[in-house]
Prior knowledge:
Layout: E1 3-8, H1 15-26, E2 30-32, H2 33-43, H3 46-56, H4 63-74, E3 82-86, H5 92-102, E4 108-114, H6 117-126, E5 129-130, E6 157-158, H7 166-187, E7 193-197, H8 202-223
Helix pairs in contact: 1-8, 2-3, 2-4, 3-4, 6-7
Amino acid sequence: xxxxxxxxxxxxxxxxxxxxxxxxxxxxxxxxxxxxxxxxxxxxxxxxxxxxxxxxxxxxxxxxxxxxxxxxxxxxxxxxxxxxxxxxxxxxxxxxxxxxxxxxxxxxxxxxxxxxxxxxxxxxxxxxxxxxxxxxxxxxxxxxxxxxxxxxxxxxxxxxxxxxxxxxxxxxxxxxxxxxxxxxxxxxxxxxxxxxxxxxxxxxxxxxxxxxxxxxxxxxxxxxxxxxxxxxx
Length: 233
């Protein structure tokens, strides 16, 4: 069964780190909407050209274009075994569109990485990112504060400007809380939704996340057995 996964959580909760680990261990792509948008623009696809025209005007790319680019990316061969979506969906409208894209396929696993605001603010204050590829130093690890070189590309690790400003950090959390609540309300009733405590060491978060994912996939496997009255995901 394919692993189709999205993770919801505030900035600094460790979504990127956990997504990278899962993508590597499962052999599935981590799909960032920012990356695929840039790829579509660079490739000169129809949707990419439409997106470029919008961005050149300084406007936000519409849901229609974003959904179309995501749809095209999920149809590529490397996503047949599953995928991890990063940065999508952000709204209930996008979530409904994703449901339509995946209709008839394997279940969408939705994980909320829950971290208290105080811990998120502490992590953002000390978070460092690669100046070359944008990768984060792994949060919660003993070496994260002392990591000078990116483990992915060797680039210099720096503090993001918006992470270094206390008022900006607080405002980002407020925006996240306001924008994520409708999305969480949309997904929470599903049997494929799982909360995970993200305020732990990253290895413990990974173990809990893996267990949460497997619990959803196990239900999906059993419900596909003829004669088994499993829950529909």
